[in-house]
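Appendix B. One record, verbatim.
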Amino acid sequence: MTTFSETSTRLIFAAMGAVCVALLGAAYFLQYGPGQQQPCPLCILQRYMYMAIAVVALIAAVVGPRRVGAMVVAGVLGIFAAGGAALAVWQVTKGDSMATCLSDPVGQLVYNLPMRSWWPEFLAAYGGCADYVPPIFGISVPLWSLIWFAGLAGVCDFVWLKLFRSARQ
């Protein structure tokens, strides 16, 4: 039986990073494309999670950590994905009732983050959580985000378990 190789983890981490970069590109298109949908504070926090996953995953793909290092990376990525999923669940379940999210504590947190000045066109929240955003293929944007975060978390679990099992053989 073959073990889960370093090459496999590097490819998976590279794919995860590429997916997150593509999702951030899609967010940019939604914001500046024909619909000009402005992000709410929860959207911005989810963008930070996608950025964190992309950076860590792409660095891991380049460095190619061995088994224990790859397990740590998968765990960290899983935590970021779970955090993003929690934000998406919050947005899916409470977003419609958060008409004043720009002035609530979450909105103020996002507004006061120092990273906002790095790329204000992309990391500043100008929309409200209850603003109508047309669904994509019948699924709301926050629900799409939840699906992607859940998928990324699932991949992290898969990698971690494969590496754990390969160490026991």
